[in-house]
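[step 3/7] inverse_fold.run input=structure_tokens len=413
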């Protein structure tokens, strides 16, 4: 059990411990449980609908206020492949257009005190053919990329304007789009979950806290086709007070902040993290079309391997973007970070908007190459190796021990 009680520079302000499984069972269902939404609706606050082992096909679900959904080991809750059941009323779900966001999520959480727990699987079936189509959700996303349009696909789970929400031990796989979106919510604990989707599945972010506060993501395993974790802040307000602790990231685009940062991202602690095979590693990305302040982001005890860009801090994510929202990154701190070869990028927007970064105990292989522009770099007592151009050489640094974990078996077909 990990206890968190932070009064320091950055992190979730709550006192967070490992969740427990619910005690009050409202009802236990067996397959096919076509009345799942009805069962959820009939449970009183503080009680739980439990799914026994088996296969449960389902249309979109909403978790009521204060109600929990518990999936036993061997239970598979499978999202419908029919775009019509997710449509927001304009018959756009399952199509391409200039807007996107034409689908409801598979599971929606609003209100306070709800949770999804257990050792079962929630399967978005993103690689399966859509009903009434010859295309999969993922193929639709690839076609959107080729045509410059946006795909209308459902997110797997979305917490929207919610409070005190928990996801514990559950396994998410094959989302049509993003797996878990935490949108304008407060007090969310994600602990010990597994996300497993192929690296080729476009726009399948793992966990996206968006304009949310007091969020903890801990002891989870994520491999996917886009950002493993992406902290964002758009027009909905700032993202702040987040703890990303003891997680393991595999295929995907890394541990990201952005690219939407207009609302401001601050007070983030990322600690005891391994990134094994992500394309980017520690990534902060934005541009003048969606930029804002990113400050007080603290990376501690980070291990990286097999990454193209282990450090990727860039204020020109889209080089063609235009606008007046210039990204400003301040008080970014890397402490006890080790990796192999690759590009180490720190690029501020211009001399008037430099990136401010502290490097303390940062060690990469001799072949790693720094690309530094418009940056103010401070080197701490632990030093940095190799040193960026213009930074005095540091003494050799002893790399920390890395806790490389194999990706857990998820029952992927």
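[step 3/7] decode complete -> sequence:
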């Amino acid at each position: 059990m990990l206890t968190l009680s932070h009064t320091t520079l950055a992190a979730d302000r709550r006192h967070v411990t490992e969740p427990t499984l619910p005690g009050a069972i409202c009802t236990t269902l067996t397959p096919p449980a076509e009345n799942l939404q009805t069962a959820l609706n009939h449970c009183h606050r503080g009680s739980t609908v439990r799914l026994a082992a088996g296969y449960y096909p389902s249309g979109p679900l909403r978790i009521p206020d204060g109600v929990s959904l518990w999936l036993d080991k061997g239970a598979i809750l499978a999202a419908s492949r029919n775009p019509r059941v997710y449509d927001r009323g304009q018959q756009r779900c399952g199509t391409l257009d200039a807007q996107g966001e034409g689908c409801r999520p598979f599971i929606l959480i609003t209100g306070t005190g709800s949770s999804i727990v257990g050792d079962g699987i929630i399967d978005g079936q993103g690689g399966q053919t859509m009903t009434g189509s010859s295309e999969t959700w993922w193929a639709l996303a690839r076609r959107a990329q080729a045509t410059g349009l946006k795909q209308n696909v459902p997110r797997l789970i979305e917490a929207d304007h919610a409070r005190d929400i928990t996801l514990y031990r559950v396994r998410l796989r094959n989302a049509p789009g993003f797996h878990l979106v935490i949108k304008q919510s407060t007090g969310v604990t994600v602990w010990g979950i597994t996300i497993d989707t192929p690296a080729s599945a476009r726009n399948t972010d793992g966990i996206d806290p968006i304009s949310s506060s007091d969020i903890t993501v801990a002891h989870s395993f994520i491999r996917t086709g886009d950002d493993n974790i992406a902290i964002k802040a758009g027009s909905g307000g700032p993202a702040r007070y987040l703890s990303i602790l003891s997680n393991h990231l595999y295929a995907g685009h890394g541990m990201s902040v952005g690219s939407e940062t207009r609302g401001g991202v601050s007070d983030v602690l990322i600690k005891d993290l391994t990134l094994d095979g992500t394309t980017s590693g520690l990534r902060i990305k934005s541009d003048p079309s969606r930029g804002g302040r990113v400050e007080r982001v603290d990376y501690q005890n980070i291990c990286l391997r097999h990454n193209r860009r282990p450090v990727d801090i860039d204020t020109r994510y889209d080089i063609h973007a235009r606008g007046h929202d210039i990204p400003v990154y301040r008080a970014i701190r890397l402490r006890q970070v080790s990796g192999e070869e690759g590009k180490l990028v720190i690029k501020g927007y211009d001399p008037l908007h430099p990136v401010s970064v502290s490097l303390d105990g940062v060690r990469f292989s001799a072949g790693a190459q720094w690309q530094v522009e418009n940056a103010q770099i401070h080197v701490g007592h632990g030093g940095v190796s190799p040193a960026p151009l213009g930074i005095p050489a540091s003494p050799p640094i002893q790399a920390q021990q890395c806790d490389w974990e194999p990706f857990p078996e998820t029952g992927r077909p």
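[step 4/7] annotate
The longest strand covers residues 293-305.
The longest helix spans residues 137-147.
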